[in-house]
Amino acid sequence: MLNVPRLLRVLLSAVLTLLAAQAPAQSYPVKPVRVLVGFPPGAGVDITTRLFMPELGKAFGQQFVVDNRPGAAGNIAAEIAAKTPPDGYSLLSASAPIVMSQALYSKPNFNLERDFDPIGMMASAPFILVVHPSLPARSLKEFIALAKSKPGQMAFASTGNGSTPHLSMEMLKSQAGINLVHIPYKGTPQAVIDLLSGQVQAMFANTLSVLPQVKAGRLRSLAISSAKRSAAAPELPTVAESGLPGYESGTWFALLAPAGTPRDIITRLNAELGKIVASADMKAKLLDQGADPVTMTPEQIRAFLKNELVKWTKVVKTVGIKVD
User: What are the structural domains, with CATH classification, of the chain?
Assistant: First the structure.
């Protein structure tokens, strides 16, 4: 004969267990959320993150606090994020260099595919090849000709060894057959400062960081790295159409969580990010900065990251760069 009270106790216990498991995700967040950024204030990923986090804060009723941990082309912040508890209270705002680190280091301190769960994409941005106004080159063709006439005498800045701007210039050097001296910096702001003062002659930088300087006439833009011209600077030719067919580079900005973060939390964050990206206000802000709004599901981001890893691993092997 069926023991009804005992069955009721078992069912009640199962229901309570299920509710307890769901409660953290449903009540999330109950305290401020830390968002790690691997580059200093003023870098493209920092600018984008600071556009989005106040909006996420409004949506969730808690602060999403940006925590800048610059260094090692973003690897310091990524390593910290990978080792934090997967509870949704420490996230990583990542950009393209996180992929490069997997190809550049023989023993990276984190595994992008194993240690992180994608949340959502925020934006993408091409790079602009910018030069100091004193440089007698007003097109990519003239820049290449000048570099060939002065092998090893012109210097370019980057945001660090193995960073996307660094590899983007190495790819251009390889295709154009030129020799430039690489000067690495800890981030875009420091590199741009030395470019503005003429300490270095050129650099690839994302549109968010240098487009205002170009518009003000303090830097000269020669070409854009995307496959197609950008809506933010439609008059600027692509590197490919300027004489190096097939050339394409750029960066993107995505929110990641430590692996094992509850799926409900990731789903909620992705949904709110999607709403923010789709808003007319955010679209206008991103386009004004030279970035394109982008939305992806976590699954789409995971596939995208795999493709990026294959692409940049080939570049690293072709150029022969190793950081360690």
Answer: 31-125+251-319 (3.40.190.150), 127-242 (3.40.190.10)
